[in-house]
Amino acid sequence: MCGQMSVQVEVWPVAVDDAGIWLVSGSDAWRSDPVPQDGDVHFEVETLLHRYSALESATLIHSTSWRPDGPFIVLTYVAVLRGTDHPVRNAWQGALPISRALTEQVGPPAPNAATDPPIPRYIDVLLHAVRHLRFLLTEDATAAASLDTTWQRHLSGLRPALAGMYTEAHRAS
Predict the structure, then answer these.
(1) Is residue 172 part of a domain?
(2) Alpha helices of the chain — where are they, by DSSP H?
(3) Could you read off the pLDDT of 135-171 as tens digits, one per residue?
């Protein structure tokens, strides 16, 4: 007998400094345990941020996507953390840069048929979240107000997106 799928939350915490945009969690998102049936998803996001001492510095928490992943439906959030006058890595030693070079290096995911579910890699989920921030910069006044001039400068070179992970059409075998 198969069990039920559970809901899980993941948070991609990002910060910015003069050098660029950084994933402060290192090479992956922070993920919750399954959300209790009587739980609150946003509370789980805040709990994750608190667990990693990042809740107080969050200036924007935004849901960007969802996907099935094993036994879970994963609700994806991006959390923008307040910058400082110092390099991000002074506060988050394990932070890794998110750059255009990274996007070019990993390349686009393999396309799928229009009726098939996409199978994004974790890097695709992260890059989508950052491009989603770029969309919010021009389309959501409240979110844009939480993004300082350093964020605006680094996001300005990105293509805004709500979707659009695939650049090539799927070719049936």
Answers:
(1) no
(2) 41-51, 88-91, 100-106, 122-139, 141-145, 149-155
(3) 999 999 999 999 999 999 999 988 777 655 445 554 6
* Residue 79 tokens, joined: 């959390």
| pTM of structure | 0.88
**The domain containing residue 103 runs over which residues?**
6-155
On whether residue 167 sits in a domain, the answer given is no
Closest listed residue to residue 10, CA positions, set 117, 151, 149, 129: 129
* Mean pLDDT, the chain, integer: 88
CATH code of 69's domain: 3.90.79
What confidence score (pLDDT) does residue 170 get?
Answer: 47
DSSP annotation of 9 reads E
Nearest to 12 by CA among 110, 96, 83, 88: 96
